[in-house]
Amino acid sequence: MTIEARGVVKTFGSFKALDGVDLKVANGELLALLGPSGSGKTTLLRIIAGLEWPDAGEILFDGENALDRGARERHVGFVFQHYALFRHMSVFENVAFGLRVQPRSIRKSEAQIRARVKELLDLVQLDWLADRYPSQLSGGQRQRIALARALAIEPRILLLDEPFGALDAKVRKELRQWLRTLHHSINVTSIFVTHDQEEALEVAHRVVVMDKGRIEQVGSPNDVYDSPATAFVHGFIGESIMLPVEITGGAVHLNGRPLDIAAEGAAAGASTLFVRRHDMLIGPADSGTLHGAVTHVRSFGPVQRAEIALTEGSTIEIDAPRDRELRIGDRIGLKPRHYRIFAGG
Amino acid sequence: MSIEMTLQRTPDASARSLAETAARRDPRAEPTVVRYAIITLAIAFLSIFVVLPLVVVFVEAFGKGISAYLSALADPEALSAIRLTLGVAAVSVGTNLVFGLAAAWAIAKFDFPGKTFLITLIDLPFSVSPVISGLVFVLLFGAQGFFGPWLQAHDLQILFAFPGITLATIFVTFPFVARALIPLMQEQGTQEEEAAISLGASGLQTFFRVTLPNIKWGVLYGVLLCNARAMGEFGAVSVVSGHIRGETNTMPLLVEILYNEYQMVASFAIASLLAMLALITLIAKTILERNIDGDLPHDH
Q1: Quick one: which of A188, A260, B72, B285 could link to A289 by a disulfide (CB 3.0–4.6 Å)?
Q2: Is the pLDDT of residue B297 over 70?
Q3: Minimal CA separation from A240 to chain B, in Å
Q4: pLDDT band for position B2 (50/70/90)?
């Protein structure tokens, strides 16, 4: 099923949670809503689910107005951030809930319900926990039961709010891969909300980057990482060096000194130069376009991170390969391999 | 560094000094004398002000033997008071269960203008003297009261009768159920209800399958306290009862009347029933409190 949001606006008191959001989600897609807290991503998800109502705008499911129907009639599977499992019901009854509350006319028989719940518990590989209560499960297990419960009603859309937010790092990584595999096998249009860029880039087909109630960019994980559309996206995704620069006469100036890089059509005025930390090439002190001295070096994993005090007056952090020897006090020259310039200081 | 050196030289001495330091650092370790003094004080206070009166009630009640006790309870006036008290309590608790649930539900699960005002209003019966609460009903339904003439014209008796006593009791005991449920429901939040609705449950299904099971111990707790107060209420009921013997005297009122007539055994026999109600309430309350803890969210 396709989902479309048109001009969705939502305010809470004086806070504008969504400020005119337009979005199209293709059938069978796995989409991530990525943004800092307060960016409106959860509000958008809740509006699609019918748990919140927009002040203006439209929500369309397969081209049909979804706002005519309440959360009950939308057939949306919703997985809550804190799982919201029914604490007084066993795992089995939690998963069976959506089947048991169906109108008598279409309700399945007890045997059919049992078979369906068994099937779902097998799908999330937790059939051995059927008789336990939510309080007896680990975070990762609760998460998977919440997913099985949402899938029980054969939802047309699956919505997940910070699905891995409350889990520790290791379980998170396992569940990410598992979610991707699961989505591949059930192939339901799915949207998940996250503030974790790694999660969004690793799991989703497309990523929607949001900030302050607006969509900043929609694109594949590669798109949003390699060609960020706005300064916010560049700063939010991946780790960036940001330097305040001035564009005058088609040249880039840092603290009044011209840099040996092209302005690439950036408009005149105060701007910000963005460079990925690993896109700074290191050379001898007399080379490059930025110069400075190493003040701090840390090594971890495949890279070393060096803090450089620029003679132009800022301190930046760069990532360099570990075989490039850097010592505190070394004077070096730097040249950005790739960079972007966005207007605004 | 100094500890290492001490350890090497004299292990015994250093172990002792470490233990002493630990004892000094333990914030709970008061000197023994202080500890016992505080415990004795607490027990003495409780004995004089709580246990002793309770014992006196039973001693006086059984002062002339069990048969005198039983015949005092079998007295028609006593039986009428017990019946009236049970009836009033049943109606009051039932009413306050429904309205308390509704109020707690509204406050805990929804945001609406005037919410703070409603919370304050729920506490009003606690902050008003029970005598004043009773007087309000006299002013409303009495012969010179607001509805008095209308009630008389339609031959409806509210004051000095079952309806009046029940109304006063409902007013005085209203906060118990709501007060027991509001914090519990607020703590539990609305996520489980949202989950139920997104799974296709109707409002009623959500209430009976999700909300109510989650708060059942809290409901029982509120009902228990509400019932104890409904049966024991004196002030408000005294104002609206009219003290018609064998008709509008509840148990607490009868205790006072019998006591004033120097019928000690009869008076304390009724009082012993109320005292037992209090003891049972106390035990049940302890058990319920333990169960409510289990209903609080623990997955955050």
Answers
A1: A260
A2: no
A3: 33
A4: very low
Q: Does the structure's ipTM exceed the value 0.90?
A: no
User: In degrees rounded to 5, what are phi and psi of residue B190?
Assistant: -115, 5
Q: What is the DSSP string of A54-79?
A: -SEEEEEETTEESTTS-GGGS-EEEE
Contact residues, chain A, for B201 at CB < 8 Å: 72, 97-98, 101
Minimal-distance CA residue of chain B relative to A86: B192
Q: Is A108 exposed, middle or buried (0-12, 13-18, 19+ CB in 10 A)?
A: middle
Q: Encoding tokens for residue A321? A: 């390969």
What is Dmax (Cα atoms) for chain B? 102
Element (H, E) at B9: helix B2-9
Amino acid at A221: P
CB A160 within 8 A of CB A191: yes
Determine the distance in angstroms separating the CA of A100 from the nearest CA of chain B, rounded to an integer: 9
The rounded distance, in Å, linking the Cα atoms of B153 and B12 is: 95
d(CA A55, CA A69): 16
Distance, in Å, from the CA atom of B143 to the CA atom of A106, rounded to the nearest integer, reads: 60
Q: Is A78 an 8 Å CB contact of chain B?
A: yes
Q: How far apart are CA A88 and CA A235, in angstroms?
A: 44
Q: Is the pLDDT of residue B1 over 80?
A: no
> What are φ and ψ of residue A209, in 5° steps?
-95, 125
* Residue B18 in this model has a pLDDT that exceeds 70: no
A98 vs B199: CB contact, 8 Å cut-off? Answer: yes
pLDDT in tens, B182-231: 999 998 888 999 999 999 999 899 999 999 999 999 999 999 999 999 99
Taking 3-state DSSP, the helix, strand and coil percentages for chain A, each rounded to the nearest 5, stand at 30, 35, 35
Q: Return the number of other C-beta atoms located less than 10 Å from residue A55's C-beta.
A: 12
Distance from C-alpha of A196 to C-alpha of A43, rounded to nearest angstrom? 17
Lookup: tokens for A115: 């078979």
Under 8 Å CB pairs connecting chains A and B tally to: 77
* CB contact set of B5 (below 8 Å; sequence gap of 6+): none
